[in-house]
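User: I'm new to structure prediction. If I give you an amino acid sequence, what do you actually give back? Let's try with this one:
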Amino acid sequence: APVQVAMFEAKVDGLFVLNCCLDLLFVVDLALQFFIMYPKKTNYGYALEHDQRNIARHYLKTWFVVDFLSIIPFDLIGLLSQSEEMKKLKGFKGIRLLRLLKLLRVLKASRLFRRFELRMSITYGTFALVKFFCILLIITHWLANLWALTLVLVEPDEGVARWTDKIDAREANYDAKTSTTPWKLYLTCLYFTSYTITSVG
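Assistant: Good question. You get back a string of structure tokens that encode the predicted 3D arrangement of the chain. For your 201 residues, that looks like this:
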């Protein structure tokens, strides 16, 4: 999830185990895609492709790269990167950013949604309105997490100004500061991105 990537370090917990199980499901799904027929255009309209080689070739040319990138265990790599030896490498921060590639799974969800869309009985206007608000909420959520992720790129001891510095100064006497409390950080980022998208932006 974007929240996990932006605000939490990789560690072995229930969420980590759940992600590993999801990775396994997507690996199985990737293997099954080499055997699932797809519609192809013929002189008589559309027909399902039955030839195994053509199915595999079609999948390799279309969604294979996206599906493959989404199953790379970046959570496990991120967990290994917590060691002191890995933190000394220049690419340490990049490893955490690479975990965002798992969001490519959303593209697979969009394919499933299109199949479901054909069976829906609501009007097009209602569907378009619901779809618009859903997309707006998802984009706001993602941008909020990307805004929080900028704090990962700059460590407090690097001497580079961060957007939470003034907030931390006002919260000097607070135990739970915005920059170190995930739920406060998320709400702050969500507020900023939502009013930027709907008004200033």
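You can read the tokens as a compact description of the fold. Here is one thing that stands out. Residues 121-201 form one domain.
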